From TrEMBL:
Cofactor(s) this protein cannot do without: (R)-lipoate
Gene3D superfamilies given in the database record: 2.40.50.100, Chloramphenicol acetyltransferase-like domain, E3-binding domain
Organism: Anaerotignum neopropionicum
Family stated for the protein in its record: Belongs to the 2-oxoacid dehydrogenase family.
Domain Lipoyl-binding: 2-77
Molecular function as annotated in GO: acyltransferase activity
EC number of the protein: 2.3.1.-
A GO cellular component entry from the record: pyruvate dehydrogenase complex
Biological processes annotated in GO: pyruvate decarboxylation to acetyl-CoA
InterPro entries from the UniProt entry: 2-oxoacid_DH_actylTfrase, Biotin_lipoyl, CAT-like_dom_sf, E2/Pdx1, E3-bd_dom_sf, PSBD, Single_hybrid_motif
Protein's UniProt name: Dihydrolipoamide acetyltransferase component of pyruvate dehydrogenase complex
Amino acid sequence: MAFEVKMPQLGLTMEEGTVTRWVKQEGDTVKAGEIILEITTDKLTSEVESEFDGTLLKIVAGEGEDIPVKGLLAYIGEPGEAVGGAQAAPVAAPVVEATPVAAAPVAAVAAPIVTANGRIKISPLARKTAAKMGVDYSSVKGSGPAGRIVQKDILAAAQNAPVAAPVVAAPVAAPAPVTASGAIDLMDGDEVVKLAGMRKVVADRMAQSRREIPSVTQNVKIDVTNLMKFRKQVNEDLGVKYSVNDFILKAVAKALKNNKHILVTLDGDKIIKRAHVNIGMAVALDEGLIVPVLKDIDKMSLEEISATAKDLAERARTNKLNMDEYKGSTFSISNLGMFGVETFDPIVNQPDSGILGVCAVQDELVMDDEGNISKRQFMRISFTFDHRLIDGATAAKFELAIKELLENPMKILL
């Protein structure tokens, strides 16, 4: 009996996946646990292993196709086995032309031997020959061991029966060329690329968030002069390389712990008050955006946060994250400071109710009350929140808590 290979569900929110590459081809022998194809989901590219031993009989989903969860990808079974209402393609091997058999006795027309699971007993070579010659072996009596149909039975039946058109499995359709909708005039050199995989999911999620959430973004300017000096001193004294982002993560985690009303989620007509401070850290990839999660970050030391953040970011870029490592966020941070971004409106990463945008550190000249001018370093944070759950004043108090910590960096560690 042929087995169906279906699109796996690699996460609770996964609805479909894109077939990226077939590692195995039709006719290849596969073993359980062996990688047969690669798929791109909403978060990353994953390898799909075979659950069965057998032959890859037929590929149903071509490369580049979007297939829903539990959608059919391929069939695995015995060589030549009928799948999907048609005879599967034979095993990829040199085709041996049938040699004339002298005076082979005509097989008697009778019911063939059927196994307990309802399959006709026929050798792979006989099945292949029947497919090639168009012989219906369902009425051929086998002369092999235990009544098994062998090649000579098929050849004999072919001499005494009209030859039907051979049944050939439909070839896997090549992905259709991507064309524009016609709404935009293309110019010479323009390239049309299908919106698929991670980029498609990012587009869908961002549009969904904008449609569903009445969001508000508030911007706060923070003097981080002392933070930059403190970071430099700590790194020199301890011989470490803590980043500005490490201190921001620690400060936000502490502010969230003291402002739990920010950690809420709307589920229908119910509000879920989150018990854990799990910060999703946005990491930009060429093909999209992925948000690995630092779980229970409020319980981590600065050293643990730094090591965990670096490890997650590196493995996110090399597609080595585990499924659980990008699930379960209760708040998110998107840091574009390294790109010189002065301010932006981040989009809430559902089901979180808020996301903090971190902007560039910039030098500014400041005049004190006595008229003295000095150079200070400032950074802006942009807090976007779900206004159904968080009011402006509540959001402002949370922002001021972050500001207080970043302007007095020793408090971050206390």
